[in-house]
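Replying to the earlier thread about multi-chain prediction with a worked example.

Input:
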Amino acid sequence: MTALAGLRSFTRRDQVFKFLISADELEIDTTKGEMLYIEDLSVSFDGFKAIDSLNLYLREGELRCIIGPNGAGKTTLMDIITGKTRPDSGSVYMGQNIDLLEFSESEIAQLGIGRKFQKPTVFEQHTVFENLELAMACNKRVWHTLTARLSAEDIDRIDEILQQAGLIEMKQLPASLLSHGQKQWLEIAMLVMQKPRLLLVDEPVSGMTHQEMEKTSELLNHLAGEHTVVVVEHDIDFVRSIASQVTVLHQGRVLAEGSMEQVQSDPAVIEVYLGE
Ligand code: ADP
Ligand code: MG
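Result:
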């Protein structure tokens, strides 16, 4: 039996017994090709249907962009997947076997669903390398990280992820010296250290330069395959550059789905975006 996933396991007795296996060992049944199944999902806030009988399927390893006007339900959907908000009805499964609605927010994180919020939250006073070291610590036994040094394998893994994220040259710099875009990549890299199966990224390119956007698009495309990646984004040019499948949400429902070209020529989508 290897390490429990997540520090919280050590502070909450009930979870120690609940999680006898780590996210690494967790068997997610994706034999039908789907990583996430969302069916007939609804949630209301004070009678207002923020999510309304929504169906969404994500294939393992795909990169999916979710777009839609303000108030469409994008953030609420992410909140439900990550256990922050409980739906009124419907189902959310990871693979065919894991009913996410049975788990708490911290448990869902331990099951391998990582979420990156809009604002980067890195450890400013630590170096870029140390930030990844700390992120890795979240996946190991507390006593291991307090007492043991990194193995050669650990160091290689950190370097590889820093390379992917375009941060290898800044490895020994304090994170406080990074640009806004670089901090976003660092935070994505920190999430990747925890080996998530599903990675949810909320508005990664807001405040980025054009060049940084291109690099973000490359990074997210690179992460797809090994991870299933969902990007919620307002920036249509960015979504186009990612060239992934796009889901358009509107009033808590899926309005259209397909390539960017397909959804952009959909009259219903045009109406919603022009009417904004
Ligand atoms: P988006 O992220 O697509 O802009 P949201 O998911 O944030 O949309 O919001 C969908 C709708 O649900 C909005 O009308 C919002 O005001 C409402 N809403 C979201 N969360 C809550 C909440 N906790 N309480 C009340 N209303 C909420
Ligand atoms: Mg939102």
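The chain is about 35% helix and 25% strand.

Feel free to reuse this layout for your own posts.
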